[in-house]
Amino acid sequence: MTTPKPSPKPSPKRQREARPSATKKHKRPQRKAPNPPSSWNPSIVVFACNWCSYAGADTAGVSRIQHQPHFRMIRVMCSGRIQPGFVLRAFEKGADGVLVSGCHFGDCHYIFGNERAVEQFEKTMNVVKLLGLEEGRLRLEWISAAEGARFAQVINEFTDQVRELGPSPLADKRQTG
Ligand code: FES
Questions:
Q1: Considering its fold, how many domains does the chain have in total?
Q2: Where does ligand 1 bind, in terms of residues with CB under 6 Å?
């Protein structure tokens, strides 16, 4: 009587072929390469009226609401004071974006100052476009003293918008001092 021969052990290669699902299952997931970090941050100037928008920024700070920090505030008594020359000077001095902000309609402490601000803003926008700057570099917003969260949201949105546009084309004409 002959004893049956044990079946030959399959080679490791054959074992892998026999279990395709097992090899797929244990395959390491491919990691996506992270986007390169953006080292550039825009330089933004915010003109804010004393009674509403500046106080709104203060409310954001007091409430510890996080927002992007790449801006400088210039306080004026009323948004109606913000003439085209102020904004153009900011661009000339190296701003990549300018935000003009004041009280909501009906809340201006000088009655119709923010209506005047709208007229000034439209004139300013026309000059900005003539200079070849993108419209997205200039923005007008109404922010009340109680709207700290809104201030933070506007700053974050505007900073991202200007970051996407990139450095101002006037950058090479920047002056120092
Ligand atoms: S006081 Fe705020 S817009 Fe006039």
A1: 1
A2: 49, 51-52, 78-80, 102-103, 108-110, 113-114
